[in-house]
Amino acid sequence: MRQLLAPLLAVLLLPGGCAVYDGAGSDGHPLPDHAYRVIENQVYTPEHWPERLYADVYLPETGAGGLPAVLLVHGGGWEKGERADVARIARTLARYGFAVFNVSYRLAPAHRFPAPLEDLQVAMRWIHTRAAFFGVDRQRISAFGYSAGAHLVSLLGAVAGTGNALDRAYGGPLTRPVAVVAGGIPSDLRKFTGGRLVPQFLGGRIEEVPGRFAQASPAYHAHAGAPPHFLYHGTMDVLVPVDHATDYATALRSAGVPVELYLMRLRGHITAFLTDRHALRTAAGFLRRHTAGAASTADSSRAVSRGSRCPRGSAVRSAPDPAPPPTCGPVPPRG
Predict the structure, then answer these.
(1) CA torsion angle for 121, 147, 290, 161 (degrees, to 10)?
(2) What was the pLDDT predicted at 297?
(3) Any idea what DSSP says for residue 266?
(4) What is the pTM of this model?
(5) Helices and strands (H, E) in the chain, number of each type
């Protein structure tokens, strides 16, 4: 068996050798390789929130302020998963020069839709509030997720600023990422007519709550104001079939939204996640192109010096919004 698997694994790990990509490709500039540091366990939720939620913040040592940022969201079928699952992606993006906010969110069945979407809306607002302290350019905040995380970041971008029911309570234009990377995305939950995870997340089967299945689907909200998307997906995915990516790409393009589609041959849902090195490099190039065009010339975060951030081994003390600039203190225990 090992002799049979070895050639397959070798092919899967080739840089881009087993993928179909219809995007713009490299901008001609190599991706950087910065040192970075991590500030763990930052509380991003306000005091009244139903659950205390945390972010790990990865800050590249670029020598300048005005960093592009990425809200990073793990998968797990909306019922499990943790920040550690995507720490590898966070480290990679930080090396490429992005400030990364790797967040937790409320999970089913204790918390059903739209609870995790509201968590991400609050997380985006927290990043904006703390942007100057972390040296982030507020005009250059993107979002990245895999699987359930991809669903959530895409939905976050699709409803932001629309004024609909999912946007009114905690959303608004401030919560719109400038670009979205979505891997293994379940883009249209109406395609899941059976199974356990989606009904658990939505609180009923499709025949019981059809409107909720539609409202929770990023594909249902495709419109011209949605952020540009980079979609990557395994062509042999049986958990979330590849038509979730291809059909969603078609819907977004029909609405006039820029889309890049990266299809990973011979990969399923898990193997696409585990062998995504070249997809991450390509996605980082996509983010760099779209955040470069959004760079702010007036954002005060450009004036923040490296010396005003927390020293290594310390953390930012969170405070309710509105709040004075945060101060440095001991890293709180994980909880």
Answers:
(1) -30
(2) 44
(3) T
(4) 0.85
(5) 11, 11
